[in-house]
Amino acid sequence: MKRLSHIGTAAVVCLCTMPIVVQGLNNGVAKFPALGYNTWNAYQCNIDQDLLITTAQLMKSLGLQAAGYEYVNIDDCWAMKNRSATGELVADTTRFSRGMKNLTSQIHDLGFKAGIYGDSGWFTCAGYPGSFDHEEQDAQTLFEDWGFDYLKYDNCAIPFDDIIRQGIVGKHQRMSSALQNLEETVKPIVFSLCQWGWSQVWLWGATLGHSWRTTGDIGPNWPSLASIINFNSFITQATGYYGRNDLDMLQLGNGGLTFEEAKSHFTAWALMKSPLLIGTNLSAITPDIVEILTNREILAINQDSVEPSSISPFRWGINPDWTSNDSFPAQYWSGPSQNGTVFMLLNTLDEPADMFFNLTESPWIRAGREYSVRDLWSHTDNGTAIRNLTVSAMPPHGVVALLLKDAGNEPDGIYPQCAVWSQCTAENGTLVGGN
Ligand SMILES: *[C@@H]1O[C@H](CO)[C@@H](O)[C@H](O)[C@H]1NC(C)=O
Ligand SMILES: *[C@@H]1O[C@H](CO)[C@@H](O)[C@H](O)[C@H]1NC(C)=O
Ligand SMILES: *[C@@H]1O[C@H](CO)[C@@H](O)[C@H](O)[C@H]1NC(C)=O
Ligand SMILES: *[C@@H]1O[C@H](CO)[C@@H](O)[C@H](O)[C@H]1NC(C)=O
Ligand SMILES: *[C@@H]1O[C@H](CO)[C@@H](O)[C@H](O)[C@H]1NC(C)=O
Ligand SMILES: *[C@@H]1O[C@H](CO)[C@@H](O)[C@H](O)[C@H]1NC(C)=O
Ligand SMILES: *[C@@H]1O[C@H](CO)[C@@H](O)[C@H](O)[C@H]1NC(C)=O
Ligand SMILES: *[C@@H]1O[C@H](CO)[C@@H](O)[C@H](O)[C@H]1NC(C)=O
Ligand SMILES: *[C@@H]1O[C@H](CO)[C@@H](O)[C@H](O)[C@H]1NC(C)=O
Q1: DSSP character for 431?
Q2: Which residues are catalytic?
Q3: Could you tell me which residues come within 8 angstroms of residue 281 by beta carbon, excluding any fewer than 6 positions away?
Q4: Is the pLDDT of residue 13 over 50?
Q5: Which of 108, 319, 356, 405 has a beta carbon 3.0–4.6 Å from 340's, enabling a disulfide?
């Protein structure tokens, strides 16, 4: 019965006429994007228990925990290459010599939740045991015995068709079902699907997990960020509470990005409601990167408690609307939020640029109203916008994030009469407000 409470009215109506719809993992965890840490980008396979504890301690002392970062996640290479005689996963006996239960207890004692990595095939991407045909057993080991809270589930070494006899969805359903079996007896687990590649995971991922990778691995460079932003600009509607496009881990502070690019990276990921998993060596992190990662006004929108939508482009910019261009993605974005309409302007050019838009180009803006402007990076109130807004001299690959709040009717006598002039008509039938 517990799961029924999460289905909502629409599905309850369906119960009268249809079989019970599988509700995937809409199970009370991961309503909002996960905020946390992942070991892969900074360390790859060079991980051990002490690194994880040091990282968790640094997340506290750097103020990341206080800003909302909650998960400390281990990526690939934590296991022994062979399972035990009874088929169980075994943690690396040298690098995790105190055992995983000890590690998750310590992470929990520090006030965090703990995440682990697995794979839907024979082997993980680095060649450690995958969970294919061990789903129930591994779910029990990882979450019941060892106490982990979150699973990133990768996509390497998939069995032949005549063994698995499943499509992509069926392949992931196996672990999703194993996790659902633990939901009542152990706890609900956050399930992060890593089905990269052209599999349209945004169409079906929400029935099985809480987030789904939409692209290949991110790199610490602007071309990688631009191509991920471009790809995801076309599928923003797939993101909502309990399920979202995952733009991959954060590469801030890993070299390869300018300060402006790091701000753009964080802004785009946060406002597109991606999970935000830090992938930086925290022992070497600089205060300016910590300041980006702890921008509370941006984080509040990522974690918006009343409005789950991603921002979406309202104009592409230098290329025609709806153009796919890996190097020059959409530049003008907006979306609804708890406190107003949020805008992201992205200067995708390699040189400074002025950016201009009419407010009503965004569907969330009302014609005939004026808006107060809050700059979410300078943390200042920047006056009032009427009809349009210009940002001058944006740096190359720079970003501006603004929150526009309705501030009442615009003054009388603004010309043209109609901000959206098409078909704008007086009661006597005269077209008005054209320009
Ligand atoms: C792991 O298992 C394989 C196959 O059973 C075996 O050949 C190999 O010796 C084992 N390796 C270790 C380190 O036990
Ligand atoms: C973890 O193991 C260490 C060393 O054996 C021990 O001192 C510590 O109490 C253990 N911590 C937890 C939370 O189990
Ligand atoms: C992380 O940063 C510390 C401090 O600068 C450094 O000693 C260590 O080698 C770095 N680790 C990696 C994997 O880069
Ligand atoms: C909206 O404003 C309130 C009050 O300042 C703040 O607590 C909340 O985090 C804001 N929500 C978003 C999504 O920015
Ligand atoms: C991407 O946009 C740039 C700038 O408009 C253009 O020069 C380039 O040809 C475009 N690339 C593709 C693949 O359309
Ligand atoms: C902005 O509005 C003005 C005045 O209505 C109009 O001339 C202009 O074409 C609009 N620009 C865009 C990009 O919509
Ligand atoms: C808003 O005002 C602040 C303080 O003057 C300034 O630093 C910032 O660039 C302004 N933002 C925009 C988008 O113009
Ligand atoms: C921007 O709006 C103002 C009214 O606030 C108007 O006077 C001005 O012409 C508009 N600029 C453009 C470029 O449309
Ligand atoms: C129609 O109404 C508009 C706006 O009130 C007014 O400016 C215009 O003169 C009217 N036209 C006629 C033919 O009455």
Answers
A1: B
A2: 154, 217
A3: 42, 43, 253, 254
A4: no
A5: 405
Interatomic CA distance for residues 267 and 345, integer angstroms: 10
Report d(CA 173, CA 379) in Å as an integer.
Answer: 44
- Counting Cβ atoms within 10 Å, is residue 119 exposed (0-12), middle (13-18) or buried (19+)? buried
Q: Whose CA is nearest to atom 12 of ligand 9?
A: 428
Question: Mean pLDDT across the chain, nearest whole number?
Answer: 93
Q: Please tell me if the CB atom of residue 429 comes closer than 6 angstroms to any atom of ligand 9.
A: no
Nearest bound ligand to CA 50? 2
Q: Cis (ω within 30 of 0) for the bond into 416?
A: yes
Q: Let me know how long the chain is.
A: 435
pTM for the full predicted model: 0.94
Residue 311 reports pLDDT greater than 80? yes
In the chain, where does the domain assigned CATH 2.60.40.1180 lie? 4-19+310-409
Q: Outline which parts of the chain fall under CATH 3.20.20.70.
A: 35-302
375 close to ligand 6 (CB < 6 Angstrom): no
Give the span between the Cα atoms of 250 and 280, in whole angstroms.
8
CA pair distance 360, 368, nearest whole angstrom = 9
Q: Residue 17 above 70 pLDDT?
A: no
Rounded to the nearest whole angstrom, what is the distance from the C-alpha of residue 159 to the centroid of ligand 1? 20
SS3 28: coil
The CATH class of 35-302 is alpha beta
Angle between helices 100-109 and 49-61 (to 10 degrees): 10
CA of 315 to the centre of ligand 8 (A): 18
Reading the block at residue 228, the tokens are 């991920």
Superfamily of domain 4-19+310-409: Golgi alpha-mannosidase II (2.60.40.1180)
Distance of CA 175 to the CA centre of its chain: 21
Q: Which residues are CB-contacts of 244 (< 8 A; sequence separation ≥ 6)?
A: 33, 210, 211, 212, 238, 273, 274, 275, 310
Residue 408's CB is within 10 A of a number of other CB atoms, namely 10
Beta strand 211-213 with 190-193: parallel, antiparallel or unpaired? parallel
- Residue 252 region, left (φ>0) first, then alpha (ψ -120 to 50), else beta? beta
Q: How far is Cα 300 from Cα 7, in angstroms, rounded to an integer?
A: 26
